[in-house]
């Protein structure tokens, strides 16, 4: 709906409210039992008083002549006769100018109202050209800002997958700040049942965290045929592409600027925001909300809400609960742990040195000597790079023996570091320690009286000279 459409709708709504106000105002004079004299007295009484206006806030007085006209209009034409006629304002700009402005916009939709006005001034002169704002209103009324080529917008029907686990849709949203650190909610929804195979808060919106969320979803709910996502960095990473290829999942990304197919996951995220997130906080200044102290506590509360509230409530679109619709499809095939481990491992291609060693992110591993000079595939867990499987021509060629371990995790898979413990002060005053130590040394070594030539600095036992020599 354009701005002109919204403005016209608001005017129609206002006209309906005015008609209803007029209908109610003349109601006492519409009694058929009244004689003409009695009706005249009622109308005079109404005209002598002020009445609450159509908006219910302002006072309005109505003349008897106007009331008589409304009584006749209601009697002859009913409610529609009381609707005020739209105001007819004769245009101050000729049709030639408006048609030329519309033509300039249609032939080049990139032209702004200001640019169209410049062209009109150059062609017609400044006297006949309206303002930029008037041109903007004309373009909006003719839908030249939303449909510059004249074609109607593309219409989309409702879509639903034919079976459970046919399409999973994934998305991310910003979560609350927990103990000064941000978190993000990763959600996966099944298109058929609206069941949530995964809904979990993570510290970072990166590929390794989404891989953990997807791993848990597949380990409990099976393998989807299609995984539908946007073009975020977590979804275009090559590690996710490898995972989907190994498990036989078709990874599909929405076209940039056209998120129409992800409406279901957007709606469930909105539900989580309005019904769960509104009750959660990590801030001390919101006592009406539940304060969470850690990411684990937040995920525990979310899991309980999803299990008891979301999965157990009838969905307005399907007419069933997500749990019942999911269970009706029967048990899903779960991949064995070994296949899952291989699918979610990362892979890199490296050239084996002549020393039968291969380097990966600063780590050096020795491999079988016959692989020297050949390119091999290294399959590893990004969170634990101490163990590397070696593949050559699609077959496993053993395990790399670590020689140098420079890092235990991949740079793109940093661990979730816990908050550091509160700092405990030692109470040490270093300048005071230095001052105290210097004063002690001065007291034990320096004899100021000796500087004046006096012999009073000798010790009581007479061995002052020996002490100085020592």
Distance between the termini: 102 Å
Roughly how many Å is the radius of gyration? 41 Å
Spatial ordering of strands, largest sheet = 10-13-14-15-12-11
From the 3D structure, determine the CATH topology of the largest domain.
Nucleotidyltransferase, domain 5
What's the pLDDT, averaged over the residues?
84
Biggest sheet descriptor:
6 strands, antiparallel
- The helix content, as a percent range, equals 25-40%
CATH class category name of the largest domain: Alpha Beta
Proportion of residues in extended strands: 15-25%
- Spell the H/E element sequence: HHEEHHHHEEEHEHEHEEHHHEEEEEEHHH
CATH architecture of the largest domain: 2-Layer Sandwich
- What is the overall number of helices? 15
Oligomeric composition of the shown chains: single chain
CATH-defined superfamily of the largest domain? Ribonuclease H-like superfamily/Ribonuclease H
The structural domain count equals: 4
Structural class: alpha+beta
Low-pLDDT residue intervals, each spanning 5 or more residues: 454-460, 464-470
Q: What is the overall shape?
A: elongated
What is the strand tally?
A: 15
Structure description:
Mean pLDDT is 84; it is low at 454-460 and 464-470. The chain is built from 15 helices and 15 strands. It is of the alpha+beta class and 470 residues long. The protein is elongated, with a radius of gyration of 41 Å. It has helices at 3-25, 36-47, 64-77, 95-107, 113-124, 132-141, 207-221, 238-247, 263-275, 295-310, 322-327, 337-343, 430-445, 448-451, 464-469; strands at residues 50-52, 59-61, 167-178, 181-190, 198-202, 226-229, 250-253, 280-281, 290-291, 346-351, 357-360, 363-366, 375-381, 384-392, 395-404. The relative contact order is 0.06. Helices cover 38% and strands 18% of the residues. The strands form 4 sheets. The chain has a 6-stranded antiparallel beta sheet with strand order 10-13-14-15-12-11. It folds into 4 domains: 3-82, no CATH class; 95-141, Arc Repressor Mutant, subunit A (Orthogonal Bundle), CATH 1.10.10; 167-327, Ribonuclease H-like superfamily/Ribonuclease H (Nucleotidyltransferase, domain 5), CATH 3.30.420; 345-404, OB fold (Dihydrolipoamide Acetyltransferase, E2P) (Beta Barrel).
């Amino acid at each position: 709906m354009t701005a002109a459409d919204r403005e016209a709708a608001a005017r129609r709504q206002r006209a309906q409210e005015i008609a209803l106000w007029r209908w109610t105002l003349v109601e006492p004079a519409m009694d058929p039992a009244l004689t003409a004299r009695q009706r005249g007295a009622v109308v005079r009484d109404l005209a002598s008083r002020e009445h609450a206006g159509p908006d219910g806030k302002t006072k309005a007085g109505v003349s008897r002549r106007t009331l008589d006209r409304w009584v006749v209009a209601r009697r002859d034409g009913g409610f529609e006769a009381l609707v005020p006629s739209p105001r007819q304002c004769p245009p101050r700009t000729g049709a030639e100018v408006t048609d030329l402005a519309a033509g300039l916009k249609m032939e080049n939709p990139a032209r702004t109202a200001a640019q169209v006005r410049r062209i009109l001034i150059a062609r017609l002169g400044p006297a006949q050209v309206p303002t930029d704002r008037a041109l903007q209103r004309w373009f909006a009324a003719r839908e030249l800002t939303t449909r510059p080529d004249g074609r109607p917008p593309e219409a989309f029907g409702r879509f639903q997958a034919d079976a459970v686990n046919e399409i999973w849709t994934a998305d991310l949203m910003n979560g609350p700040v927990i103990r000064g650190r941000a978190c993000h909610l990763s959600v996966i929804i099944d298109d058929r049942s609206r069941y949530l195979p995964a809904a979990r808060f993570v510290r970072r919106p990166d590929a390794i965290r989404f891989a953990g969320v997807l791993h848990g979803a597949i380990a409990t709910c099976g393998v989807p045929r299609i995984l539908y996502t946007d073009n975020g960095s977590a979804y275009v990473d090559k590690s996710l592409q490898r995972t989907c290829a190994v498990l036989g999942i078709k990874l599909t990304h929405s076209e940039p600027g056209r998120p129409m197919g992800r409406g279901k996951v957007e709606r469930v995220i909105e539900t989580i925001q309005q019904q769960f997130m509104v009750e959660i906080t990590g801030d001390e200044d919101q006592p009406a909300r539940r304060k969470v102290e850690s990411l684990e506590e937040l995920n525990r509360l979310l899991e309980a809400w999803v299990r008891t509230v979301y999965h157990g409530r009838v969905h307005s679109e399907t007419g069933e609960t997500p749990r019942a619709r999911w269970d009706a499809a029967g048990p899903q095939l779960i991949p064995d742990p070994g296949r899952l481990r291989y699918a979610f491992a990362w892979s890199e291609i490296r050239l084996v040195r002549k020393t039968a060693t291969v380097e990966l992110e600063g780590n050096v591993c020795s491999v079988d000597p016959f692989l020297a000079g050949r390119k091999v595939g290294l399959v590893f867990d990004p969170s634990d790079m101490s163990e590397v499987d070696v593949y050559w021509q699609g077959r496993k060629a053993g395990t790399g023996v670590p020689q140098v371990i420079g890092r235990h995790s991949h740079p793109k898979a940093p661990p979730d570091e816990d908050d550091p413990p509160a700092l405990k002060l030692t109470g040490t005053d270093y300048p005071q320690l230095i001052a105290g130590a210097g004063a002690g040394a001065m007291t034990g070594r320096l004899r100021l009286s000796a500087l004046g030539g006096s012999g009073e600095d000798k010790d009581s036992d007479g061995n002052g000279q020996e002490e100085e020599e020592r």
